[in-house]
């Protein structure tokens, strides 16, 4: 095969091969460019749209794929399938990041480091979105925008402001724990490989008996802790602002795969009630003397993404993404992030961001979400986009129902909206019908019949009969009138008629 035969043809985004990639179509060799040159339009228009909004926080980051391998049995605490047996491997994607700087900021800034993990499990994707610190600056999500504003640029000077930063911290003493960590040498890690990671928040484990334990996640670097001192970090900003990114890529490329020992702390619900500190306060840690670290497994990064934008920049993490056997806690900051993070991703990447390959669950996903920009998965075909319905076999599975959570004087649960004393759907509609004049009743029945005659398809009689039962329960005359108008044999409703 000749070199020419091996060549891959250059095409437009729609697939048309073309030749003139470098020269614009002009009126004569020195003439103006013609509007007809749509290749020029496509190149410039796409170029203008190559940048997506950068993350508000954690804008600059690095990422890689790898595996999580279970080494110890924790099934007495959780039924999550990724922990189901020793030796089980789960593919992961891990994104490291700085927090306060822009996408072009230096890797060696004094800043917390993001440690965001996506586990691709058979029960869906689990996102554990943490930092390289076990605590955070604030403990209520209402304070988050104010705090982040102090880490960004002054609205007058457009420069970073130590005044804003320390003003906020001095007015919020809850920040002191995290401030001390940040101001230590751990505020300037040597590389992403040489730092610990933490889930930071308190989460829940739920076991096969539907028993709840609270849990904190720890990732202990097996490369050892290594930090810059302040002068070294400052020098590295000028020498190589991308030092941590470069270090991670080169380490994986040469087969020096970074690894972390995965451990958890476990607390019972009773212990949480009686602990000396609020166990759901993210500005506090759980003493490892009181709640020792329990070995779980090993995390290894062993695959660099082949394209940074496709994988790292488009990676989207949200604490809202949990799996069966893992749940939340009353941690206020976690509750706020459950809302804030997926909302940020929808703004940044669009409503269908979970269809992007790095974010897509590699196993089955079934739901009633439809439409939106960049919907690329067939959009559910002709299947209905509402629930409940009479056509689809996509149903909620009760085995995944979580246990209720006792919050002291109230129980948080998914209460049946039609439970006891909430399930009379017929008395008031029946009273309304009986208040109508004979002419109003006649017109109402006629309008209903006219609307229901539009029901068609193989489920027509099933839908009509189900709705007629509701009309009969509200008022027998209403049900009889609609049934007669539709030509339905009312003998099938004898039980309902007798009940009324």
Automatic annotation (TrEMBL):
Domain of life: Bacteria
EC number: 1.11.1.6
Keywords, in A-Z order: Heme, Hydrogen peroxide, Iron, Metal-binding, Oxidoreductase, Peroxidase
Keyword Iron included in the entry's annotation: yes
Keyword Iron-sulfur: no
Swiss-Prot/TrEMBL cofactor(s): heme
Record domain Catalase core: where: 11-395
Family: Belongs to the catalase family.
Annotated protein name in UniProt: catalase
